[in-house]
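pipeline stage [seq->struct] | target=50S ribosomal protein L7/L12 | organism=Pseudarthrobacter quantipunctorum | residues=189
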Amino acid sequence: MESLVVPVLILLAVAAGVTLVARAISRRKASAGAEPPAPAANSADLARTAAAKLSEDEHRRLYALIAQGQAMAAIKLYYEVSGDGLRASRDAVGALAAHPQPYRGTEAAPAEVEDDDDEPQRFPYRYRAIASKGDVTREVSSNMLNDEIYGRIRTLARNGDTEAAATALTRHSDISLKQAREFIELLDE
């Protein structure tokens, strides 16, 4: 009987250790799941909203800090300028870095609606749109595309209006209508 006491005590100690580790892991998972990251779709909207809170000088200074890799200074600047909380400022600067926004003055908003009838706007950067299905991958790279325009094209494609989506893609890039149709076919989910 005495020979079983030591192994039973070891077994109880191991069981207690496993129980404590399991509780610690479940607490970590619960605290990590408490604050899910913002979805990418809302990130572009957040960037637009954040950019609207900045004056032209603040906009220029903020993007200069982002370009220099000074994220903390950019968050501090946005925090001071916007009056938002620290976490909201961090999220806004992250969205502005992920979805660069041009400065729009107060009179720029009505002109944006008319852009659909005029010549497509050329941006100072090249936007890459990639679609793939199975082993087939297509890429469109253009300085006439951005998140907003590509989002509209994807919405048209998902709603079944593939011809309008292909036409919009050819209008905002330098690809043929045939290439645009092939690209749009890959967007269908």
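stage status: PASS
auto-comment: The two ends are 67 Å apart (CA to CA). Residues 140 and 175 are 8 Å apart (CA to CA).
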